[in-house]
Amino acid sequence: MTLRAPYLDDGDVRLYVGDCIEVMREMDADSVDAVVCDPPYGLEFMGKDWDAPWKDTRTDKRGVIDPAAWGGQQDGNGGNPYSRSRIRTAAAHYGGNPASVNAAFAAWCETWAREALRVLKPGGHLLAFGGTRTFHRLTCGIEDAGFEVRDCLSWLYGSGFPKSLDVSKAIDKAAGAEREVVGVRSYPTQPNGRSGLHQGYAPGQMSGTEVNNLITAPATDAAREWQGWGTALKPAWEPCVVARKPLVGTVAANVQEHGTGALNIDGCRIAGEVPQVTQGVNSNGNGYRVATVAQQSKPHAAGRWPANVAFDEEAAALLDAQSGVSSSRSALMPLPRVPGFAGSVYGGDGSTNGASVRGHDDTGGASRFFYTAKASRADRNAGGMADNTHPTVKPTDLMRWLVRLVTPPGGIVLDPFAGSGSTLVAARAEGVRAVGIEREDEYASIIADRLAQLSLFTEGME
Predict the structure, then answer these.
(1) Domains along the sequence of the chain with CATH
(2) Which pLDDT belongs to residue 32?
(3) pTM of the complete model
């Protein structure tokens, strides 16, 4: 099968426009080293059809996806994963059955994940963001496609805005009662002109223009009873599924054969010192096995081991405000006992024989233990040269960290849902090759603009 002509190909980044399932089917098996993506969450965000994959043009009048259009078959064909019984949708979102919508979303996730699994090399990692309401379906789809789910990374941000129904207002509206205006509340606008903050925008990326919302008082007794009640919490985190294509043999054999299967721990450490210990096991002369320190170890120069939690700057500041300032020990400390060994860790007589390890020797809030993405004003719009209207943009610094975590040097990272191109920009900045797929022409144009202005963009991030 011949792969369609790319929308953009500069030697390092190749971008295709089209449905990711169709484009991936044209790609060679075992041809990419990692997949890092931010797929649709299945929430119909801002009324966008691309966030409602069950609303697909390849459906019949009942709203059921035609399996043939997805390369699948009808029921009764040996349990084909793309059969009509597995990929189905609600007849319509409004008035449709939520259970069938959720099942359709999970089936769609499994469909694209199967193609991602095929194009990944053995042991290759897939990182996929999801929404808090639907990521369980995303995870099941990825797992059912054949991936091994390894972890779930939590991306915490402080700029989320609650999208909640005011129950008191809804009661007055249903009663036809007019509410008295008692004040005005102002919100900064997003770059696309909409009011309020969204998780895709760092505080420094807001335009500063204020939009005023009226504050009203309940008009009926029932509305007064339910004043202050809503229907949603403030969004402050998004999960990122960490999955891996099954290995061929052991990890050691797989990484040597395919260059995939492991995480770049040292390349993604958190700045700051952390104790490291070198130990061996010997006999103390009395028949007991004891652990001994071969040498006094120093903290790793690259910092702490990366955790499965990441922050933006605002969320990190909120955490530090709650945790307060703490100081890690700087003195030499005796090493702990090792379970299963007689007596002390270092001698049957209970002595440590001077064995010790250096402490962290740093001061600060709790956020210093976790990765914090640093988004700049230039992040979203590539130094002001690109008009990025995409509503859900991840900080490029975060995407660089994730790309670095799972993509070997000289490797290829795939983003089947390129959006405004944050993964592709991140890959370029990290010096690895990238393949992106984006269905919408509007967003493909934004990607091209951001890549063209990358030198200005990266300069603005520093």
Answers:
(1) 8-54+89-158+236-266+372-461 (3.40.50.150), 167-225 (no CATH), 271-369 (no CATH)
(2) 98
(3) 0.75
